[in-house]
Design a protein that fits this description.
Layout: H1 2-13, H2 18-32, H3 36-46, H4 52-80, H5 82-100, H6 106-134, H7 140-168, H8 171-191, H9 204-210, H10 218-234, H11 240-247, H12 253-278, H13 284-304, H14 309-336, H15 343-399
Length: 411
């Protein structure tokens, strides 16, 4: 049994390009410093003395900036290539993290958060395009999962360390986040030379022959609607759920940080092996609804179980398994519809769907809490998850259920 497990893990990680590992290492360093966002709502309400509604505005500004950054990042990546966009986004984001830590008024926090999010989220479509560039169709889903593993390993470290730092001095979070961003930018330069990663410029006639607009792909746009519903629920994990844990169940910052780190550790332990075992056996839209429903059940558990530490752990487990069963296959679906000339567009639209949810999530969550309390919020998230899962299922049966071959990637 032990040897079988070891061989399973070896198989899950074998065959990936060296550049894919380098990209994941850059992400690991970057996300190990991710400490501001998980504690931003608590920071705004507890230290800047904003109301919960004002904190929701701040988080929505992160979402607006994310939307703008994803759009610009996708456009610039298709035009100039993924390498320069990644470096510029990491460097500028790190500098603005440092500036954000000095802001005190609502308007200055909102403005700086918006600019920061534009810079940070221009990185996402560029990075997704880079993963596609350095991987093969057979390793693509696992390459994206490797990136997610790096993000979540960094998240585990950042969540645990961030919880400790927040208990000492919240302002240190901004310094750590800023300098890890800057270090990641120069690590990218060191590990992955720019040569070979520069965008190949096509003549207009060649470009017209291969480019199909992602903005006219009706199936993909419908997929993004259901993705945005899912993401609107998912973002409550980072916005209102920590506040609920703190104010209603009276968890400490350190315990909240530990719960956040458990999310990352479970992804590290499970996701690559699971994706290796089931990737290509069924269409991605078969797996995604299951993950969405598991996440919805995780939120509903907040109402079904008493507010103990074990309950918090169980909630994180269901949310994490739901994430593992859905997000890697969402990536597999969007990349399957792209080609070499429009990957930035598809990646940008996918990031924009998440950015739209990042705008809607704190506003919707704050409204539902103000309207009828946290209990109403958790039930509402369960219902929205059911709607999202149903949408993905209907899309699959209407458009893809008759396919007998696994979904192939066009790049």
């Amino acid at each position: 049994m032990f040897n079988y497990t070891i061989n399973l893990y070896k198989a899950a990680y074998s065959g990936l390009a060296r550049s894919s590992w380098y990209l994941s290492l850059v992400l690991l360093v970057n996300r190990s410093g991710t400490m501001v966002l998980p504690f931003m709502t608590i920071y705004c309400t507890q230290h800047l003395h904003f109301t919960i509604a004002q904190a929701g505005i701040v988080m929505s500004m992160f979402g607006l900036g994310s939307l703008a950054g994803a759009f610009l990042g996708g456009k610039i990546t298709d035009k100039y290539g993924f390498y320069d966009v990644q470096f510029g986004a990491l460097l500028s984001g790190g500098l603005i993290f440092l500036i954000l830590g000095f802001q005190q008024s609502l308007w200055s926090v909102c403005l700086t958060s918006f600019i920061l999010s534009v810079c940070n989220d221009a990185f996402r479509p560029a990075n997704s395009t880079a993963v596609a560039h350095y991987s093969t169709p057979e390793t693509r889903t696992r390459s994206y999962s490797l990136n997610r593993l790096a993000v979540n390993l960094g998240w585990a470290v950042g969540g645990a360390v961030g919880g400790f730092i927040a208990s000492v001095n919240y302002h240190l979070l901004f310094w750590v986040d800023g300098f890890t961003n800057i270090f990641s930018a120069f690590l990218l330069l060191k590990l992955m030379p720019r040569t070979g990663a520069v965008k190949k410029v096509l003549h207009k006639a060649q470009q017209a022959a291969v480019t199909a607009s992602a903005y006219k792909d009706g199936v993909y746009l419908l997929f993004l609607v259901f993705t945005a519903l899912f993401a609107t629920c998912f973002f409550q994990f980072f916005t209102l759920q920590p506040v609920f844990f703190k104010t209603h169940w009276h968890y400490t910052e350190r315990f909240i940080g530990m719960l956040m780190s458990i999310n990352g550790l479970l992804i590290i332990a499970i996701e690559m092996v699971l994706v290796h075992k089931i990737d290509g056996r069924r269409h991605p839209l078969v797996y995604i609804p299951l993950g969405v429903l598991l996440m919805g059940f995780g939120f509903a558990l907040t109402n079904l179980l008493p507010g103990t530490g074990f309950t918090g752990f169980m909630i994180i487990v269901f949310l994490t398994i739901g994430e593992i069963m859905s997000m890697p296959f969402m990536n597999a679906f969007w990349i399957s519809r792209a080609n070499e000339s429009n990957t930035g567009q598809y990646a940008g639209l996918y990031s924009m769907a998440w950015s739209t949810a990042q705008i809607a999530a704190p506003a919707l969550g704050s409204f539902l809490v103000d309207y009828n309390g946290y209990t109403f919020l958790w039930w509402a998230l369960g219902v929205i998850s059911i709607v999202s899962a149903g949408g993905f299922t209907v899309l699959y049966y209407n458009r893809f259920s008759r396919r007998t071959k696994p979904l192939q990637v066009n790049i």
